[in-house]
Amino acid sequence: MTLLLGIGAASFGSAQQLPLMPMPSHVEAGAGAFVVDGSFAVALEGYSEPRLVRARQRFLGTLSRETGIPFLPETQPDKPRFLIQTGGPSQPVQQLGEDESYHLTISPTEVHLAAANPLGVLRGLQTFLQLVQITPQGFAAPVVTIDDQPRFPWRGLMIDSGRHFMPLDVIRRNLDGMEAVKLNVLHWHLSENQGFRVESKKYPLLQQKGSDGLFYTQQEIREILDYARDRGIRVVPEFDMPGHATAWFVGYPDLASGKGPYTIDRQWGVFDPAMDPTRESTYEFLNGFIGEMAALFPDAYFHIGGDECNGKEWDANPHIQDFMRAHSLKDDAALQAYFTARIQKIVAAHHKIMEGWDEVLQPNTPTDVVIQSWRGQDSLAEAAKRGYKGLLSSGYYIDLNQPAAEHYLVDPMGKAAAELPNDAKQRILGGEATMWSEFVTPENVDSRIWPRTAAIAERYWSPESVTDVASMYERMAAVSLKLEYYGLQHRASCKMMLARMTGQADPATLRVLGDVVQPPRGYERGSLRSYDSFSPLNRLVDAVPPESDTARHFHDLVRLIVSGKAAPGEVEEARSLLVLWRDNDARLQPLLANSELTSELAPLSTSLRQVAEVGLAAVDHLQKGDKAPAGWRDQQLQFLKQAAAPQAVLLNMSVPAVTELVQAVPAN
User: Fold this and answer.
1) Element (H or E) spanning 379, and its range?
2) Class at the top of the CATH hierarchy for domain 154-445
3) In the chain, how many H helices and how many E strands?
4) Does domain 2-148 bear CATH number 3.30.70.250?
5) How confident is the model over 259-268, as pLDDT tens digits?
């Protein structure tokens, strides 16, 4: 038995940890394994409903894709080896805080899954799928007993369909990925400066003039809602107001505070247009619209955005300034608070609970409003202290190309929350990863969401003590492979994009370069090149993942080398990578010249070669134990500082590790 992070986990065929993510709250290991073969069958006992029948069919389909074993879609097998016991129904409309716990027992001969309702069954089925591995006996799952439940009731992924429209197949396959890692809320960002994405029958000019024809019909929305419910996922819509709303004004300019006319924004950023909070007609319109959307989306929560309204149109409008003086509203924040209070009453009148970003929290905000914090853990803790329920998204912005480890070590229960009384801690509901879509398209969005969101999902589900980064990366790699059986394209998209860029089915030399570079972090990309909503996202920066696994592994090897703890094989592995990067440049350069999409990479490839040459020299010095020539270290460190700068909107991620190698070489 191997102990993992204080939680029992069985060694299965080797000393490796169980490839589970999220890690269950309690695992008790046994001996042996349950073999999955053609006789495998699943029976539903106790309470049943069509959703459970579909879940069984979906489970068998995923298992068949992974194993290659056909499983008959039986209705009730004679000799089932997998028994599912469901206590009763869940709520007709999924509710925040419903019981998602389950008990899973795997013996060498059979599997038992028990849960109070279908939600727990859905979670337990995904755990079993993650446990199935290839073994000398074929496909099998280890003998274990698992008792599991989530730490937080709200575990979400926000997908922005406003900036770049995301077709239905993208939404569906990402819902499948969410189910695989036990996320339970799709926060769907449906309106933006760049597009209004839902059909309104009451106000049809919203989509007719504000969407470029890219929107979801109400019937398509209903189909996605059903698809999500089948997977135990709530769908919370977001319609951003009073800012981030230019697309509303294209069809309905009277909503706006400025003179117009308005057109769909094609650039990225925070813009001046904002709804006019002083006109009663604004609230009449929004009452009609929110009523229509509240009837369409059954979830109890309704997100009104509320972020990044700069107030410039308000400041320039004499009528609005007169209104503010007449109502003793001292600044734009007070005017937005007035607007938010009016909208909250409208949302409540349509039997919904309002949700908004940090900015909606003002002194008089009703305490039933849910605060989604992009400002940080302290902001969230302060909201909880003041009586508000809230979610953390700061630290989980997966569009910013941060490594999984950084997301993983952010917790909704931060240091400030640890000092809260227990009742305030209970108001911290969980968190959401946020996939803003300035720099993603339907082609590469999966690679920006997965697999890093699996690590974030673990933070929301697993015990707070589960924080081992090395274990996380090992298990995330296993889950990443599994996610392909759900139809996600996070790995395949890179291969297809590289082939398109070069006209070669397998451009191995470009792949070598792509494996060790990654996009700039944070918001730097927008300062390196001009982009708008029409910009093709079809270059290497768009194809490679946000985090280079190869560079991270190389960095791990380098840390062992400079600490003197590297085994001979680890030193040779690091040296082999440096040789590969050094020699790849000569083979890659002729290919790069063949395409405008790749010619910009020539200096980056040369830089990688030069960095590798420096790394090899540093390894030689360290292995021989000699000192560097006078001035060598300073010269190389100056070069590496230059090589760390973005080239072709990409970062050479070999540079930080090679810098450590050079710094470790004794100076003369």
Assistant:
1) helix 377-385
2) alpha beta
3) 27, 21
4) no
5) 989 999 999 9
